[in-house]
Amino acid sequence: MGNKGFSILEVLVAMILLSIIVSGMLATFSIVGKGPGKLDLPELKGLIFARDTLEKLKNNVSEDPARGGDPTRRGYAPLVDSDPNPANGTTYSDPTGNPSFTRTYTVYDMDINSDGITDCKKVTVKVTW
User: Fold this and answer.
1) Helix residue ranges, H only, 35-110
2) How far apart are the first and last CA of the chain?
3) Can you give the pLDDT at residue 14?
């Protein structure tokens, strides 16, 4: 009863938890992955452009003219699916400011419960270089 220390079961559980945490961290670093200090990789720039587009679209709720927003503000991007066929979506071009990259996004109106009313929007972003 006076034993001090950890049982083998406690040590095994701790090692399993530590290995899960470390593998998650390594997976995160593999996105940047091809070596430290190479922040000019096209893949990373593409990821940044895609994230920037999604951030602009996320902020559109407050800039939507139908909600009293100001679409002339810098960074506003349309979030309207004007195609009557919901499978097609509407594609927009979003300039990157870098001639080597092109960025487009497609907006789809999603009717989840088939009542004819848009329940949410699906957005896909494509960055090419």
Assistant:
1) 42-58, 60-63
2) 67
3) 92
